[in-house]
C-alpha cells in the first residue's frame, strides 16, 4: 500500500484523491534514476512549491487552468496550461521547438 493511501482515504476527506506516483522515464529506459535526474527533480519540485506558496500568498481571485514546470533553455520556467496549445504541434503530439533538432539536420547530412 502506498503511504498516502493509509493517511488519506476518500471516506475521510472527499476533497483529496490519492494516486500512486509513477516515474515513466526510468521505467521506459529500464534504468535507475541518475544523480542528475534526482537533482533535476528536486529543483523542479522546489520551483513548483515556491510558485504554489507565492500564488497562495497573492490570493488572487483569478482562476487559472493550471500550470506546469519544466526546463526551458537551461532554466526552470513555469507556464500556464492555457499556453500549452501554442507550444505543441497537435498533429504530431510533440513540441514545436525542440532544442536538439537544429543539431540533428547538419549531422544527418554529414552522415548521409
Protein topology:
Layout: H1 3-7, H2 24-29, H3 35-58, E1 67-72, E2 75-80, H4 84-87, E3 88-89, E4 94-95, H5 101-111
Antiparallel strand pairs: 1-2, 3-4
Question: Could you walk me through the main structural features you see in this protein, from its secondary elements to its overall organization?
Answer:
The chain has a two-stranded antiparallel sheet. Strands 3-4 form a two-stranded antiparallel ribbon. The model has no long low-confidence stretch (mean pLDDT 76). With 112 residues, the chain is an alpha+beta fold. Strand 3 and strand 4 (94-95) form a beta hairpin. The chain is built from five helices and four strands, in the order αααββαββα. The N and C termini lie far apart (53 Å).
Low-confidence stretches: none
What's the average pLDDT? 76
Overall helicity: 40-55%
What is Rg?
A: 19 Å
C-alpha geometry: extended
DSSP strand count: 4
Strand order of the largest sheet: 1-2
Count the helices. How many?
5
Biggest sheet descriptor: 2 strands, antiparallel
Order of helices and strands: HHHEEHEEH
How far from one another are the termini? Answer: 53 Å
Strand percent estimate = 5-15%
The SS-based structural class is alpha+beta
